[in-house]
Amino acid sequence: MSSLLYRTEKGWLGREHPLTKLCLVLWAVSLILIVPWQAAAVLAALVTALGATLDSGISWLKRWLLALTPLAISLFIIHVCFLHPPDLLWFGLIPVSRRGLLESVSLIARVAFALGVFLLFLTVTHPSALLKALDAKKVPPGLSYVLASPLLLLDLFAERARSIQAAQQTRGLSLAQSVLSRLLALPALLVPLVTLGLMDNHSRSAALTGRAFRAFPYRTVLSPPPDQPHGPILRRILLAATVLQGGLATWLYWK
Amino acid sequence: MRFSTRTLGLISLAVVINSIGGQIAHWFRLPIFLDSIGTILAAVLEGPIVGTVTGLISNLVRSLLIGPVEAAFAPVSMMIGLVAGLCARLNCFKYLWQAVLAGILISFALTLVAVPIQVYWFGGATGAGSDVIIFYFLHVGRALVGSVALTILLSNIADKVISCVAVWFIVRQLPARLSGVYTPMKTRHS
Q: Is A199 domain-assigned?
């Protein structure tokens, strides 16, 4: 679980019900499609301020900048230098386009906001809390299983792959040759790794079936995430607003 | 439609294989992604619907580990699973040349889905190293959609061909008692 983006958060965002936070993300992402770029820039600044005030604000800020910076640089170069004819000289040297500049700022603000909101959600919501919330809302157990089990198996498989690779290198498999030789050596790692995984899956699924996994259409959760009194109605309002905003964005696009 | 518990386990396994594929490519110092071997494997073993679901779950899980951009590209992974599954259904993973062809077909299909996402949601960029190729195509006068499409196709074709060949090889090496339990494989063996 250490490879997750989640960090412990004691503030109101951490206490909010996971499904309410998910609805907030959907609403926010659909909102950014319909607001003008100036509003998008203000919203991006607000989400940055909100992220910075988290208990893990520095970590959130680092991840957000890591995701955004290369994207923003690429967007800037594409729109300012290539897509529109230049009509301005920066420092008397670099030809740029005013329209491209405006377009790139608009796109970067929208992407920054959407990335920031999504990253906020991932930072303050542990996947197990989200899965518990889904189980409590009577989502089929199979769905929770396919979302949760990869996270539990990931470290085990990475370790197994490392062991297979180390054993094969000890027995003379060299990775210091040409690209073709390294490509040809790939099945030596992949075949045992996948075969072992499929064998595990065979016995694991038999054990799960033997323990009446999915015998009932939903699971009972002993400790569901606490919900606020306003939670259910807020989620409905947010979902309705998301549908409306999404529809409006589609209409504006085709108009 | 209700998947069996074994199929759910296969989907989880495929998602894990996708997630560590990048790590394996790094160990072997290969300039490819290797992040869809699991999706192609699930599609070949259990068909296009399982392949499509695996693609979706894979990107949702990766968005929890890597970052939110992965979730936006979930339809691309779903397309990989769908086309790989359809190829398998048409018995196109029987010979090596068919696996190569399937890889090429998957690359073209994923380009169709990835271009609108990259152009209309991200303004044409992803922040990856391949953006330099987009700059080049734009510099030589190509339109944005064409530049993005060519870049996606060029950066994916080798990866998907190698992934399909790897899956073809893995499936051939599987013991019959293991491969025979998956429905499409059973049909093929009979």
A: yes
